[in-house]
Design brief:
The protein contains ten helices and eleven strands. The protein is of the alpha/beta class and about 350 residues long. The chain folds into two domains: about 160 residues, ATPase, nucleotide binding domain (Nucleotidyltransferase, domain 5, 2-Layer Sandwich), CATH 3.30.420; about 170 residues, 2-Layer Sandwich (Nucleotidyltransferase, domain 5), CATH 3.30.420.40. Helix 5 crosses helix 6. It is globular, with a radius of gyration of 20 Å.
């Protein structure tokens, strides 16, 4: 488990010092394979953000095994929550609300987080707030020193989602486009497995791509010019065919680096181009990039260049807030808490949950 704080001074915070805050929210996220709990004050200040990764468990299978993920969540949920509370210098009874991710995600994993949140809330009389995982990603940038003002354009890029939204206000979301097949992060993982780089694929492909030629292979870009939707299945197939046509180069590091660089260039081109189209058409001056793939160095660099060229403000979460974490769930939960949007004990998780 790792403890991630944005401010070293947060380590010494205690109950007496934070009684003036509007809210103290315990966030819980078990949407996929990471067990995470966090304590957030006023929707902005990270008092703790604990993440227990399962990468070592799933790596040998080349991807996430849902049953193993849910079992590990059962083992880790209380230790992670306990560490989050201790790091924040607070107890469960100090919480104003418990914000839990109830979808979308793996249903078995979501059941663990929702079940724990409902039990803890009932036992201590703490209000329960249900948060959409995508909403959490959008509001991850609100935990940074500078947060975007409404309205803004939001691109969410992760293992399970690649979506483009106009955010007009809290709870006011207009979907502009989404992936029609594989999400960008999913394509990274599948291509990584295909060329023998293992799981998770994002970091290793990003690293190899820096030493490869992005023009070595002319992989397709599914721009879908009449839509803001995304598609990466054809790109994945093209990589597969390229590997099959070069059977003698499977262990050639130069070949793998060129594959990684060319694949990453194709993904990044589409993500940046689609975002730029939306910036122009929607007339927005602010863009938020979030999700696990937003940690990708090439995507961040290209998006920064696009924002500079179009004279728009770009908001990026710090690397520890890109991947799944409970801090972003608590940040979004803060606003639902202020709006009095509470859930009952009949709250059930949903594997598919539109924003």
């Amino acid at each position: 488990m790792s403890n991630e704080l944005t401010d070293k001074d947060n380590e010494s915070l205690n109950t007496s010092r934070i009684t003036h805050y509007t809210s103290r929210i315990l966030g819980i996220d078990t949407s996929c394979d990471d067990t995470s709990a966090a304590v957030i004050a006023d929707g902005r200040k990270i008092l703790s953000n604990i993440v227990s990764s399962q990468s070592d468990i799933h790596r040998k299978y080349g991807g996430i095994v849902p049953e193993l993920a849910s079992r590990r969540h059962i083992e880790m949920i209380w230790p992670v929550v306990d560490e989050a509370l201790k790091t924040a210098g607070l107890s469960l009874t100090d919480m104003d609300a418990i914000a839990v991710c109830y979808g979308p995600g793996l249903i078995g994993s979501l059941l663990v987080g929702c079940g724990f949140a409902k039990a803890a809330g009932y036992a201590r009389g703490i209000p329960l707030v249900a948060v959409n995982h995508l909403e959490g990603h959008i509001f991850s940038t609100f935990l940074e020193s500078q947060k975007p003002e409404f309205p803004f354009l939001s691109l969410i890029v992760s293992g399970g989602h690649t979506s483009l939204y106009m955010i007009h206000g809290f709870g006011q979301y207009a979907e502009l486009g989404r992936t029609r097949d594989d999400a960008a992060g999913e394509a990274y993982d599948k291509v990584s497995k295909l060329i023998g780089l293992g799981y998770p694929g994002g970091p290793v492909i990003d690293r190899l791509a820096k030493e490869g030629d992005p023009k070595a292979f002319d992989f397709p870009r599914a721009y879908l010019p009449d839509s803001y939707d995304f598609s990466f299945s054809g790109l994945k197939t093209s990589v597969k065919l390229t590997v099959e046509r070069n059977p003698g180069r499977a262990g050639d590091q130069a070949f793998l680096k060129d594959i990684a660089a060319s694949f990453q260039a194709a993904v990044t081109d589409v993500l940046v181009r689609k975002t730029e189209w939306a910036v122009v058409k929607e007339g927005t001056k602010r863009v938020v990039l979030s999700g696990g793939v937003s940690a990708n160095s090439e995507l961040r660099a290209r998006m920064k260049q696009m924002a500079e060229d179009r004279e728009v403000a770009l908001f990026l979460p710090s690397l520890e807030l890109c991947t799944d974490n409970a801090a972003m769930i608590a940040a979004a939960g803060h606003y639902r808490f202020l709006a009095g949007e509470f859930s009952g004990l009949d709250l059930n998780p949903k594997a598919c949950l539109p924003l």
